[in-house]
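Quick one, C-alpha cells below:
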C-alpha cells in the first residue's frame, strides 16, 4: 500500500498516515473521550452540571451535521490543506480557552469554546477521510484502517493520561493548556507536510504509474446531485446503518467512565482494562481494513457490527467483579472507535466511487449525523433513570438492524472495481 517501487509515494504516504492518526485522535477526544473528564474533574472543580455540558455537546453535534454538508461542499471547490491547518489551530485555541474558563468560572466562555470546537472538528475527520480516498484506491481500506487507529489510541490514552495528571495535582486548566500546545504542534506539521491528493505531488493513487481504470473510462462523468443521492435505495441503506453505528460509538465512548463508576467498577480496574482492550483494538481496526479490501466494505462493516454487540453486552452486564466482561467491553470499545470511522468513508466510496465521494458524503454523512446527534440525550435519559444496562441492550437490537441493511448492500460490487466499470460500460452500449 506504500508503493514499494515508488519511494516518493512511500515517503509522502507514511507522513500522511501519521498526520491522519493525529487528526483522528483529536476527533475522538473532542467528540467523545473528553466528556469523561468534563463530567468528572470539571464538574468537581466548577460545580457546573452534567446536563448543561451534555446538552451543549448535543447542540454542537447537530450544528456539526450542517457543517458536514458545508465542509464537503467547500472541499469540492477548494484545496483542503488550508481548511485542515486552520481548523487545527482553532481547536488548539478553543481547548486553551476551555481550560482558562474553568479558572475564571466563566460558563458562557466555556460553552462558546466547547461548541465551536465540536462543530469545526468534523473538518479534520472529513479532510482525513478525503485524503485517504484520494491517495489510495485498491488499498483504501488498509489506509483508513491505519489512520483511524487514532481513535482507539485516544480511547486507550486520553482518560488514563488525564487521570494520571489529576492524581499528580494538575487541575483541569493545566491539562487543557498542555493539550492545546500539543494540538498547535500538530497544526505546524500539517502546514509543512499535508497534501490532499497524490496528483498535487505528481503521483497517482496507491503509487501506481497511471490513474485508476474508473477515472480513465469515466473521465467526463458528472458528480451526483442531491436529488440523485436521496432517491437511491443504497443511499438510505448506508444512512440508516452507519447512522446507527455512529450513534452507538457515542453511547460507549462518551459514557464509559460514567457507566463503570455507576456499576461500582474502580478506576484501578477499568483504566488498565481500557488500555489492554485498546492494544487489542489497534490491529482490529487494520484487520477490518484488510477485510474491506479483500471482501468488500459491507462485509467488513457486518463484522464490525458483531464487535459492537460484544462491546455493548460487556457494558450492559459488567460490574466490579466481572473482569472478563469489562475486557469484552473495552475490546469492543476500541475496535469500533477505530473501525467505524474507517469503514464509513470507505463504504461511501464503495457505493459511489472515488470521484463522487464528496458529493455523496456531504449528504449521507450529514443525515447520519442527525441520527448520531441524539446519542447523548439517549444515554442521558437512561443514566438519569439509573438503567445503563437497558440502554446497551436496546442498542444491540439496533445494531442487528444495521447488520441486516449492510447484508443487502453486500450484493453490489464496488463502484470503482473492474467488474462494476465493465457493467456500466456494457449498459452504456445497450
Amino acid at each position: 500500500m506504500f508503493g514499494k517501487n515508488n519511494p516518493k509515494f512511500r515517503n509522502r504516504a507514511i507522513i500522511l498516515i501519521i498526520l491522519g492518526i493525529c487528526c483522528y485522535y483529536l476527533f475522538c477526544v473532542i467528540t467523545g473521550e473528553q466528556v469523561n473528564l468534563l463530567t468528572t474533574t470539571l464538574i468537581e472543580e466548577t460545580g457546573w452540571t452534567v446536563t448543561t455540558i451534555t446538552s451543549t455537546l448535543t447542540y454542537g453535534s447537530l450544528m456539526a451535521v450542517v457543517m458536514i454538508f458545508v465542509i464537503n461542499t467547500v472541499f469540492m471547490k477548494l484545496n483542503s490543506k488550508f481548511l485542515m491547518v486552520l481548523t487545527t489551530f482553532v481547536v488548539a485555541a478553543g481547548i486553551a480557552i476551555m481550560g482558562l474558563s474553568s479558572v475564571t468560572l466563566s460558563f458562557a466562555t466555556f460553552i462558546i469554546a466547547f461548541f465551536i470546537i465540536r462543530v469545526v472538528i468534523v473538518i479534520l475527520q472529513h479532510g482525513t477521510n478525503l485524503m485517504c480516498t484520494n491517495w489510495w484506491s485498491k488499498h483504501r481500506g488498509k489506509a483508513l484502517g491505519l489512520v483511524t487507529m487514532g481513535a482507539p489510541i485516544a480511547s486507550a490514552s486520553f482518560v488514563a493520561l488525564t487521570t494520571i495528571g489529576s492524581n499528580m495535582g494538575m487541575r483541569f486548566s493545566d491539562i487543557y493548556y498542555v493539550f492545546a500546545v500539543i494540538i498547535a504542534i500538530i497544526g505546524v506539521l500539517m502546514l509543512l507536510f499535508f497534501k490532499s491528493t497524490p496528483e498535487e505531488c505528481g503521483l497517482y493513487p496507491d503509487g501506481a504509474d497511471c490513474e485508476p481504470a474508473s477515472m480513465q473510462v469515466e473521465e467526463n462523468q458528472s458528480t451526483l446531485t442531491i436529488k440523485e443521492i436521496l432517491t437511491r435505495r443504497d443511499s438510505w441503506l448506508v444512512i440508516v446503518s452507519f447512522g446507527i453505528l455512529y450513534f452507538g460509538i457515542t453511547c460507549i465512548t462518551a459514557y464509559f467512565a460514567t457507566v463503570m463508576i455507576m456499576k461500582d467498577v474502580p478506576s484501578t480496574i477499568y483504566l488498565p482494562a481500557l488500555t489492554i482492550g485498546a492494544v487489542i483494538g489497534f490491529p482490529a481496526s487494520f484487520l477490518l481494513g484488510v477485510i474491506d479490501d479483500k471482501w468488500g466494505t459491507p462485509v467488513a462493516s457486518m463484522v464490525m457490527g458483531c464487535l459492537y454487540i460484544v462491546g455493548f453486552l460487556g457494558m450492559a452486564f459488567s460490574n466490579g467483579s466481572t473482569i472478563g466482561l469489562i475486557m469484552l467491553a473495552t475490546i469492543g470499545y476500541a475496535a469500533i472507535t477505530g473501525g467505524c470511522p474507517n469503514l464509513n468513508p470507505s463504504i461511501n466510496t464503495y457505493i459511489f466511487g472515488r470521484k463522487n465521494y464528496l458529493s455523496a458524503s456531504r449528504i449521507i454523512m450529514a443525515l447520519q449525523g442527525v441520527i448520531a446527534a441524539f446519542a447523548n440525550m439517549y444515554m442521558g435519559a437512561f443514566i438519569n433513570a439509573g438503567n445503563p444496562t437497558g440502554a446497551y441492550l436496546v442498542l444491540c437490537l439496533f445494531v442487528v438492524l444495521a447488520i441486516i441493511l449492510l447484508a443487502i448492500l453486500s450484493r453490489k460490487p464496488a463502484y470503482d472495481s473492474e467488474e462494476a466499470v465493465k457493467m456500466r460500460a456494457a449498459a452504456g452500449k445497450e
